[in-house]
What we know:
This protein has two domains: 12-89 and 211-282, HAD superfamily/HAD-like (Rossmann fold, 3-Layer(aba) Sandwich), CATH 3.40.50.1000; 97-207, Hypothetical Protein, Haloacid Dehalogenase-like Hydrolase, Chain: A, domain 2 (2-Layer Sandwich), CATH 3.30.1240.10. 30% of the residues lie in helices and 23% in strands. The protein has nine helices and 14 strands. The mean pLDDT is 92. It is an enzyme of class 3 (hydrolase).
Amino acid sequence: MPGPxxxxxxxxxxxxxxxxxxxxxxxxxxxxxxxxxxxxxxRAPLTYCTARGLPDSGQALDGLPFTxxxxxxxxxxxxxxxxxxxLDERTLPPxxxxxxxxxxxxxxxRPQLIGRTGTEQVVLTEPPGNPAEAAFHRARAGVDPRxxxxxxxxxxxxxxxALVCLDAAATVRALAxxxxxxxxxxxxxxxxxxSEHPGHLVxxxxxxxxxxxxxxxxxxxxxxxxxxxxxxxxxxxNDLPMFAAARDAYAVAGATAAVRRLARQVIGPSALAAVxxxxxxxxxxxxxxx
Length: 290
């Protein structure tokens, strides 16, 4: 791994995946794949930070030679995408997870417990309890090897990265109040827009220093880049911390209003390879993909 500030005069580009690099179906358009392959072959300083985990990110980006550290679970984990080597891990305090999980369940929620058992990353969840959750489960069925669905699932994990709920806005706000009242120091309760589900919000409970802003700064440090040379791309509320941490931020078409407000520019849609095309422009490379 490069030493600190080895690339002090070079920008580091970090992109979100879902809704930003990937299309609405969670797939990487063929034109984007070809353009990214070209950039990575030329050793472009490019990586990503996502709410996904290592396994399903790898599936979505299959065949692309990303090597710089990447962020997963909204910044709770930083790892090498080529080898899976874990470089940084920010987890919930073990004693905090059971009471928070019990309180969410008692309020009628069916939270996902995202964590690790040994070296295996897992997402434990009960069957979906609302239409948005059902849509999420359908989209992940067969493509996310972490997902384990069972009634009354036992939360037996060696490390918990986050508790996550997806529901109607009013319900999530009420759940957030419950969780905030119980959260001990070092635990953050955050709420952000569910961009794929209008009228819905996502509740995430994780370590206080596990967000995309902290993660992109740590990625820069680990890879030998200056944190004031960060350029990021995103679309949703969970991208706001990395927008705030970056020198320049670009929102794709369809990004939430809050993300657009923080963006230097709103570029095109993910389905039309907006991020790879902007990267070619910023890196002063010709765009050869019709």
